[in-house]
C-alpha cells in the first residue's frame, strides 16, 4: 500500500505559475517530471526554448538549473510563482542555440532496455505527451506503406562543421536515398531541436520541396519525453508510441524503423531503432561516406517483410550481405 501511495503522489499533477515579460502563465506538470520537462511545458506556452530559459525562485536557489532533477525533489506547491528569463528564437539575431554534444552514447544491457519501456512512470509520461502534442502533417499518410523516422544532426547533416553553403554539410546521397525508400516508406523527420530550425535545415537542403519524394511530418524536441533509468539516470528520448497513437490505422511497431546516431533516442522502442554511423567532419568524409547507399539496400530488402521489429537492426550490414548473396544464387 505504501508503494502505491508513493507512486500516486509522484504522479500527482501540479499547477505552477510562471511570469515572463509581464505575462503570467499557468503550467501543469507532474511530480515525476524533471526540471527539463517543466521547461519544455513552458516552451509550449512561450516559444522560449528550454536551453534559453533561466528559472528564478529564491527558495530553490540553483536547483532549477539542473534539468535532470525531479520536481518531486523540490518543495513545490500550486501557490508557487517563479520567474522565467529568456528570449524566443524569432527575437534573436544569432545562430540557433546548440545542445551540448553527446559523445558518450547510451549502452544499456538488453534487460534494462526492456525494463525502461515497460516502466509505469515512463508509460505515463508517454501518455501525457500523446495527449498534449499534436503532429502536423506535411503530406498525407499512405495506406500500406511502412514508416521511416529520421534524425537530422549527424544522421543527414553535419551540424557542427562550418561551410559557406549548407549543401556542403549534407550527407552524401541524401536525395537519392529518400527518393528510393519513398516507394516503400512514409518518411518523418524527428530532431531534438526546435521546429523553426528543423524547417530551416530541411529547406536549405531541398528536402521539403523535392519533387521525387514527400515528407509526411516533422517532429521537434517538444515531442520527446524524459525517461528514468537505473544505470544512466535521466535523459530525453523519442518515443515512437507517440506516432503510433496518433496514426494507429497507418503505423505500428511492426512496420516502423527509426535511424538515429544516438541509441538513447529509441530506448522506448529498442526493437525499432537502427544506430546509424555519425556523419562528422563533412569536408574530410564527404567523398567516402557510403552509409545511405548501403542503408537504401537494407530498407528495400526488408520492406517485403511483415514485421520489422523481429529484426536485429544492429546487424543490418550482415542482413544486406546475406540478401545480396541469395540473389546471386
Description:
With 329 residues, the protein is an alpha/beta fold. The protein folds into two domains: 11-88, Roll (Ubiquitin-like (UB roll)); 110-328, HAD superfamily/HAD-like (Rossmann fold), CATH 3.40.50.1000. Helix content is 29%, strand content 17%. The protein has ten helices and eleven strands. Helix 5 runs parallel beside helix 9. It is globular. The chain starts with a helix and ends with a helix.
Topology diagram in text:
Blueprint: H1 2-10, E1 13-20, E2 23-30, H2 35-46, E3 54-56, E4 81-85, H3 110-118, H4 120-132, E5 146-150, H5 174-181, E6 185-190, H6 195-204, E7 217-219, E8 225-229, E9 233-237, H7 241-246, E10 256-260, E11 273-275, H8 282-285, H9 291-302, H10 316-328
Parallel strand pairs: 1-4, 5-6, 5-10, 6-7, 10-11
Antiparallel strand pairs: 1-2, 3-4, 8-9
Q: How would you describe this structure in keywords?
A:
329 residues; alpha/beta; Ubiquitin-like (UB roll); Rossmann fold; 2 domains; five-stranded parallel β-sheet
Name of the top-level CATH class of the largest domain: Alpha Beta
Q: How confident overall, as mean pLDDT?
A: 86
Q: Architecture of the largest domain, according to CATH? A: 3-Layer(aba) Sandwich
Q: From the alpha-carbon coordinates, what is the Rg to the nearest angstrom?
A: 21 Å
Strand order of the largest sheet: 7-6-5-10-11
**Looking at CATH, which topology of the largest domain would you report?**
Rossmann fold
Kindly, what is the distance between the CA atoms of the first and last residues, rounded to a whole number of angstroms? 63 Å
What is the N-to-C succession of helices and strands? HEEHEEHHEHEHEEEHEEHHH
Strand elements, count? 11
Uncertain residue ranges:
1-10
State the shape. Answer: globular
CATH superfamily of the largest domain: HAD superfamily/HAD-like
Strand content: 15-25%
Main sheet attributes: strand count, strand direction, barrel closure: 5 strands, parallel
When the domains are counted, the total is 2
Determine the fraction of residues in helical runs and give it as a percent range: 25-40%
Quickly count the helices: 10
Structural class estimated from helices and strands: alpha/beta
Amino acid at each position: 500500500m505504501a508503494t502505491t501511495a508513493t507512486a500516486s503522489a509522484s504522479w500527482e499533477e501540479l499547477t505552477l505559475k510562471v511570469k515572463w515579460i509581464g505575462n503570467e502563465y499557468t503550467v501543469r506538470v507532474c511530480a515525476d517530471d524533471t526540471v527539463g520537462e517543466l521547461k519544455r511545458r513552458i516552451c509550449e506556452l512561450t516559444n522560449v526554448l528550454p536551453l534559453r530559459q533561466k528559472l528564478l525562485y529564491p527558495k530553490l536557489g540553483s536547483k532549477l538549473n539542473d534539468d535532470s532533477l525531479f520536481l518531486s525533489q523540490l518543495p513545490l506547491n500550486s501557490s508557487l510563482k517563479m520567474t522565467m528569463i529568456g528570449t524566443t528564437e524569432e527575437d534573436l539575431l544569432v545562430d540557433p542555440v546548440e545542445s551540448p554534444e553527446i559523445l558518450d552514447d547510451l549502452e544499456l544491457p538488453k534487460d534494462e532496455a526492456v525494463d525502461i519501456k515497460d516502466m509505469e512512470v515512463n508509460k505515463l509520461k508517454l501518455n501525457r505527451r500523446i495527449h498534449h502534442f499534436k503532429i502536423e502533417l506535411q503530406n498525407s499518410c499512405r495506406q500500406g506503406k511502412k514508416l521511416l523516422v529520421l534524425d537530422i544532426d549527424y544522421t543527414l547533416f553535419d551540424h557542427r562543421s562550418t561551410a559557406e553553403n549548407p549543401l556542403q554539410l549534407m550527407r552524401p546521397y541524401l536525395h537519392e536515398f529518400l527518393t528510393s525508400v519513398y516507394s516503400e516508406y512514409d518518411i518523418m523527420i524527428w530532431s531534438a531541436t526546435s521546429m523553426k530550425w528543423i524547417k530551416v535545415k530541411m529547406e536549405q537542403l531541398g528536402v521539403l520541396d523535392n519533387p521525387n519524394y514527400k515528407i509526411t511530418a516533422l517532429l521537434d524536441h517538444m515531442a520527446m519525453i524524459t525517461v528514468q533509468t537505473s544505470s544512466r539516470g535521466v535523459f530525453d528520448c523519442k518515443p515512437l508510441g507517440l506516432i503510433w497513437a496518433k496514426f494507429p490505422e497507418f503505423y505500428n511497431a511492426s512496420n516502423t524503423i527509426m535511424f538515429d546516431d544516438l541509441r538513447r533516442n529509441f530506448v522506448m522502442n529498442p526493437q525499432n531503432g537502427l544506430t546509424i554511423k555519425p556523419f562528422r567532419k563533412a569536408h574530410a568524409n564527404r567523398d567516402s561516406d557510403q552509409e545511405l547507399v548501403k542503408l537504401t539496400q537494407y530498407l528495400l530488402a526488408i520492406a517485403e517483410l511483415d514485421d520489422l521489429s523481429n529484426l536485429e537492426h544492429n546487424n543490418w550490414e550482415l542482413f544486406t550481405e546475406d540478401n545480396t548473396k541469395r540473389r546471386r544464387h
